[in-house]
Design goal:
Elements lengths: L4 E7 L1 H13 L5 E4 H7 L11 E6 L3 H17 L1
Antiparallel strand pairs: 1-3, 2-3
Length: 79
């Protein structure tokens, strides 16, 4: 049986790379999908830079991943 994936983040490339690394550090594997680059490679631009990537995780880890991401944004926005 294949594990289902859930999108836990959609946004900029730089933020997406950082979030993928944070998830990895917390033991959650993720898929970094660069939607903007995929569409450019296909010959058209199908996304805005601020919505360029998606981070997907196995559904069973989605709640924990979202909690980690929310905590990251709360701490980032305090600065």
């Amino acid at each position: 049986m294949e594990n289902e994936l859930t999108v836990v983040y959609s946004g900029s490339r730089v933020e997406g790379q950082f979030i993928a690394e944070i998830l990895k550090e917390n033991g959650i594997g993720s898929i970094y999908r660069d939607i903007l680059q995929e569409s450019v490679d296909g010959g058209w631009a199908n996304s805005l830079p601020e919505n360029a990537v998606q981070i997907q995780v196995e559904t069973e880890f989605a709640a924990k991943a979202k909690q980690i991401i929310d905590e990251y944004f709360r701490n980032r926005d305090k600065k």
